[in-house]
Structures are given as structure tokens and as C-alpha cells.
Amino acid sequence: MIVDVLNQKGEKVEQIKLPDEIFNLKINPDLIHQVVVCQMANRRQGTAHTKTRSEVSGGGRKPWAQKGLGRARHGSIRSPIWRHGGVAHGPRKERIWKKKIPKKMRRKALFMVLSGKLKDKELIVLDKLELKEPKTKEMAKILENLKIKGKSAIICLPKLEKNVILAARNIPKVETIEARNLNCLDLLNFKYVLLPKESIEVIKKTFLK
User: Fold this and answer.
1) At a CB cut-off of 8 Å and minimum separation 6, what does 91 contact?
2) pLDDT tens per residue, the chain (209 residues)?
């Protein structure tokens, strides 16, 4: 796969060949869906919790006599059908949401998403991405030069670049991530992927073993 490499001004500076084993795979939507569902499940906090009738305070005595008053029989004011009573079938924090998925499947799905981004012309390869100062204005100018200002984009950094992270964090719909931490869910949450050339080597080193 031959792609154009742009500089920070949006000008074409060269062409490079991307590795086919990462950027030229046939898309399998079922596999991508399976991996994304697994990732979303693993990110769930699972802190939602309701009390059952045995955990709600009060309700130790029978509210009124079983017979003779003409009212419906009740044994406790903490029954789920009573106001302020326990909750039946509510969410419980004991539930474990985590799912396991093989590493090979995760990697394959990641490569498929990258391949899809490239085929849809939503992957932009840069010769480098450097900022002398952490200024949001400069980052916004780069996005404008690349004609993606105002659109959602994720910037894949080859290493921890504090200036780029600080400059991008106040721009709506723009996020940064280190190339070694790439995953399907984060890539699919954004339309465009900005990929400096150095990040391609990091991806190869991290995921192609």
C-alpha cells in the first residue's frame, strides 16, 4: 500500500509503502464487533447497585394484622411493591462484566480497523508531528492545514509528547494516544487517524511479533 506523506502544513513531501500485514487486510465485521463488545464490557465500572428487601432498613414487624381489617395482607413494609421497599431484579455490583478474548483476535481486529481507515481515506500519514510550545492555536492550525478542523480525530503518537497532548486536549473531538496503546474501540470512536511515520514503526514493533 503506497500512501502520501504530508507535513504539518498539509503539503505532500513523499510517498511510503505501508506494511500489507497491517494496512491491507480483508475486513471481517464480525471479528471487529466481537472485540469492540469485549473492550466495552471490560471498561464498565459495574458500580450500579440496588438493595434487596433483605438489605433495606426497617420492616422487622408486620405492618398490620393478617385478618380482620379488610386490607390486603402484608408481611413487611420493605417488600418490593412498597414505596421505599427493596428493589427486585435491580443491578448488583457483584456482577462481573469482564470478558476474555485471545490476543491474536485483538491484533487482527486492530489491523482490520487500520486497513479500513486507509481504504476509506481516513488515515493521514505525517512526516512528523512536533510543537515547540504546548499551544492549542498551533495544533488547531495543523488540523486546519490537513482539512480536518472541526472533525473528530485521534492522534497516534510514537512516544509521550507532552506539548502535543497539552495542545490537543482542549480541542473538541480530538484525542491523543500512544501508538503502543492502540485499540479498536478508540480508533472507531473517531473519524480520522493521524499517524506520524515513527508511529508506524512502533505499531510494527508492538503488534507484529
Assistant:
1) 48, 49, 50
2) 788 999 988 888 889 999 999 999 999 999 999 999 999 999 988 899 999 999 999 888 999 999 999 999 999 999 999 999 999 999 999 888 899 999 999 999 999 999 999 999 999 999 989 888 899 999 999 999 999 888 999 999 999 889 999 999 999 999 999 999 999 999 999 999 999 999 999 999 999 87
CATH 3.40.1370.10 residue ranges of the chain are 2-44+98-207
Amino acid at residue number 66: Q
Report whether 129 contacts 155 (CB < 8 A).
Answer: yes
The CA angle 201-36-111, to the nearest 5 degrees, is: 25
The topology under which CATH files domain 2-44+98-207 is: Ribosomal Protein L4; Chain: A; (3.40.1370)
